[in-house]
Design a protein that fits this description.
The protein is α/β, with parallel strands linked by helices. It has eleven helices and 14 strands. The protein has helices at residues 6-12, 15-30, 107-125, 140-152, 165-174, 185-189, 232-237, 245-251, 253-258, 266-271, 290-310; strands spanning 3-4, 43-47, 52-61, 66-75, 86-93, 100-105, 132-136, 157-161, 180-182, 194-197, 216-219, 239-242, 262-265, 282-285. The chain has an eight-stranded parallel β-sheet. The structure holds nicotinamide-adenine-dinucleotide (NAD) and (2S)-piperidine-2-carboxylic acid. This is Ketimine reductase mu-crystallin.
Amino acid sequence: MDKTNVHEVRRLLHYRELIPRLEEALGKFSRRDSAEVLQPVRSSVPLHKHRGFMLSMPTYMENSGVLSTKLVCFYNREEGSSLPAVQASVLLMDPEYGNVKAVMDGEVITCMRTAAVSAISTKLLMRPEAEVLAILGTGKQALSHYTVFTEMFSFKEVRVWSRSGQGLQRFCQSVSGPVTPCVSVEEAVRGADAIATVTRSTEPVLFGRWVKPGAHVAAVGACRPDWRELDDALMREAVVYVDSREGAMSESGDVILSGAEMFAELGDVVNGTKPAHREKTTVFKSLGMGVQDAVSAQLVYDKWTAQASKQ
Ligand SMILES: NC(=O)c1ccc[n+]([C@@H]2O[C@H](COP(=O)([O-])OP(=O)(O)OC[C@H]3O[C@@H](n4cnc5c(N)ncnc54)[C@H](O)[C@@H]3O)[C@@H](O)[C@H]2O)c1
Ligand SMILES: O=C(O)[C@@H]1CCCCN1
């Protein structure tokens, strides 16, 4: 298999197949069994001139025979820039021979697996009677979060906020279901039961004083140790879950700078070794993990080879 392009990955990847695999992978990761998942903290190279970073995300799942690495560049672009904020490729390798089996587009994988993991955190940590979802940001992640959240849950209202009026308009035109555009973050999140923060902000946009007690926040942006999306009050009041403790300690400004305690990894909740505090305000601080890309790429590869062998 050579280069699998964006359209091919989009055609082959579906949330209904991806979500159970990701949930299983989160559980495996949190067991810290090196035969299940070996995933060192990713390395990061700053691209100062272009206000970006390159991340290298190797992962080995010995028991499943999956060896992969994602290479991803992300940028803190000016608003309105036509250049992409995130570009990625995923390499799948044969662990015995060391050859590359597939190189595939990583942008769709990044969008879908990140939104799917936020949906898993929301499934596990949101109150069952939830009615209102708020999405902060209107970029690629906002779209994938809208798609999977409206597929998985039955919210009565989905609100969205963007600091860019144009972005808000584009988002509302491109989604297939109902959405309420909001002019301020406060208007979007007041009374919301679930909130997804998917911005490129480097300073807090979501403040604890606006958040309904018992709400669940899936915090996806702010992936640098000095970047924030959530304020100290929210971080300290909420029960904080992370994807990886090591990752959060090295990369999450919201965790490091607030001094908030990390209660558990999402995988601990999947494994039943830590409780899901649905009754409390919860934050899931997502940074993204190589194992999420590994299982997503393997799923694409399996479906691609199964189809190719029938032709
Ligand atoms: N946790 C993960 O696994 C993961 C994966 C991919 C991307 N991300 C991060 O998620 C964020 C969104 O990614 P994307 O691909 O949707 O980017 P994008 O560029 O497509 O969208 C970014 C959105 O943030 C808004 N924005 C930019 N600067 C802002 C500011 N200062 N305040 C408020 N809003 C601002 C933009 O208007 C836009 O709506 C980025 O920070 C990215 O690094 C995280
Ligand atoms: O895990 C990822 O793929 C992302 C890419 C962009 C920055 C944060 N992490």
